[in-house]
Amino acid sequence: MEFREPKPTRRFFPTWRSRRDDWIDGTGLLSEVGTGYAVDVESLLQCCVAWIEAPPFFGKSFVADQLGRWLLSPISVENSSARFGEFTCLTSLDRVGPASNFSPGWWEHWKGSSSHAYWIVDAVDEDFRSKRKHAWTIYGAIKNLVFRQR
Fold it and tell me: Which of 9, 29, 45, 66 is the most buried (most CB within 10 A)?
């Protein structure tokens, strides 16, 4: 029997759309009714950069872990390559030490490639509250990419 990591089913609400209360269910999440504006995980992955925010204890880390496992899961039992290629990483800022290297091991190689990369950075809000500023280091690495590289 083949085990496959399930694709996350959470939908995301683009902030460039105005919020309407009839699109939100009783928990504050998007209603299952469908808004026409909500995007799924695959649509989200088409973005160059996506910032996901929600109040504390709303499941951001749960979704980040789920998405990371899905992106890193093998294509099949016969093909152990990661579903989204070698340039995939989940960094949780609440699980890293003070002197951590935040760039994934593949970062330098990826900058010179034509492949897509998927770097999920979780616990940014916790990082800001702790005043460690690791998120700024990651932001600087992304900001310093030159157009030719990407």
Answer: 66
